[in-house]
Fold this sequence. Notes:
Blueprint: E1 4-8, H1 14-30, E2 36-41, H2 53-62, E3 69-71, H3 76-81, E4 85-86, E5 88-93, E6 101-106, H4 123-133, E7 147-148, H5 156-164
Parallel strand pairs: 1-2, 2-3
Antiparallel strand pairs: 1-5, 4-7, 5-6
Amino acid sequence: MNDRKVMFICNHCPYVIHLKEDIVKLANNYMPKGLAVVAISSNSVETHPQDGLSFMAEEATTYKYPFPYLYDETQEVAKAYGAVCTPDFYLFKKDGRRPFELVYHDRFDNSRLRSNTPTTEHQVGTCIQKLLTLPGIVVAASSLTGYMCPSYAIFPSRLGELVNGI
Length: 166
């Protein structure tokens, strides 16, 4: 499996805080099966100092992130992906010699903050499982929920380059 999961997260986002343990569980489940996972923080440390490198390292250690947690200081990567909130999840499929294909851009699951309703559907996990078992799967984006980031222009010509670089 050469598929890749890219997620935009940050330390201070209440939606990310709500999902951290589940994100780690999902990564621990699928990384041994060949899924490459990376987390990226694109927040400005001027406006959100708690999202700086030293705090990111502490966060990764505390939650035992099994994936790289990278800092996008210039926000170039977030702009190329069109990331508009945290958390923001992307799943790419690699099929032989063909370029990476975006098959999922959506929320992690159907849970909500301050809700006592248990999560009933891990949308990212469902899509990953389908990638493992069903060829040709394509999942469209639906409604993202999270901490809104500034709107960015999408530069699709750079997206393939950025995915291949992970």
